[in-house]
Specification:
Elements (H helix, E strand, L loop, with lengths): L20 H8 L3 H10 L6 E3 L3 E3 L2 H16 L4 H10 L3 H29 L1
Antiparallel strand pairs: 1-2
Length: 121
């Protein structure tokens, strides 16, 4: 498991539409049973459930899980405190975490586009 200060070292989120609970577990360095628990504690987190009650997370769900992880593991919030921070939505810490997650993703995507352009040129 990554140390609390290493949330920025999590892998880049692939450009897929849906992720299984196992994939999200690896992308966020959180065990699947923790993800299921967080679904009960954070109303914003509700993955799509399909055949046999299988969970399928979308890209925004993975970012949300990383935000929750940062609040709990890096900022030291309790579940209740993290829930309040997430519900407020305007918290500077939540916005900072969002930027920390989105910027590396955007850089990776732009590097991929650059590679495609270089190959075609």
């Amino acid at each position: 498991m990554l140390e609390a200060s290493h949330n920025s070292e999590l892998p880049v989120i692939p450009g897929k539409r849906y992720f299984t609970i196992g994939e999200v577990s690896e992308l966020c360095a959180v065990k699947p049973h923790v993800l299921r628990y967080w679904e009960q504690e954070f109303p914003q987190l509700s993955p799509v459930k399909r055949r046999g009650n299988r969970r399928y997370y979308q890209h925004q769900d993975v970012i949300l899980i990383r935000q929750i992880r940062a609040l709990l593991y890096e900022e030291g919030y309790t579940i209740g405190g993290a829930r309040l921070q997430m519900e407020s939505g305007s918290s500077e810490k939540v916005q900072t975490v969002q930027l920390q997650q989105v910027i590396p993703q955007m850089i990776a995507e732009l590097e991929g586009v650059l590679e495609l352009l270089e190959v075609e040129a």
